[in-house]
Amino acid sequence: MGSLGQVVLEPYTPADGEGCLAIIDANPEHFGPGDREQFASFLADPKGKYWVIRDGDRVVACGGAMTSDDNRLGVLAWAAVLPEYQRRGLGSLLVRASLRYLAEMPGVERVVLETSQRSAGFYERHGFRTVRVLEDHWAPGLDRHDMELVLDERRRAEILSD
Fold it and tell me: Which of 26, 122, 151, 154 is deepest in the core (most CB within 10 A)?
């Protein structure tokens, strides 16, 4: 694939639903049985902030963040990138937007996510650490990694200055 066209990060709208589901469909090695249905349910009423990244008119990545009811815990949710667009910085763009959204809320103390061993290294590069592994949780050979990032004042300042 050649260079990226005009890449735009914008808020998710219901019209983006099929494009987001196509991203999940294109990444079967990253998602387990039933994930597509759970994701479709999430897209029907996304919480917090959820974004899409477009290359021209095509949705090529999606992801977002929300908080717990008491706003002390941030959660990254349903981040995915079309395979042919991976390793081009789009996932990092989504993570940075999500962390900025959460860092702007003074009560958020930690940010958590659930992912697989196939994406854990990506999140480690953004400051997350694995706190628990559940083998074969999502599907045989697809382990769940519970990860967290402590949002102390130093880290919050780094995120907000990025």
Answer: 151
Instruction: State mean pLDDT over 111-130.
Output: 88
Residue 42, pLDDT > 50, answer yes
CA distance 65 to 59: 18
Q: According to the model, what pLDDT value does residue 2 have?
A: 43
Domain extent, residue 91, equals: 7-161
Number of structural domains (the chain) is 1
* 3-state secondary structure labels for all residues of 108-152: CCEEEEEEEHHHHHHHHCCCCEEEEEEEEEEECCEEEEEEEEECC
Residue 100 falls inside a structural domain? yes
- In CATH, what number is assigned to the domain containing residue 93? 3.40.630.30
Q: What crossing angle do the helices spanning 153-161 and 90-103 adopt, rounded to 10°?
A: 130
Q: Assess if residue 2 is contained within a domain.
A: no
Q: What is the mean pLDDT of residues 134-162?
A: 85
Contacts of 14 (CB under 8 A, 6+ apart): 43
Domain assignment of residue 1, yes or no: no
Tokens linked to 31: 């998602």
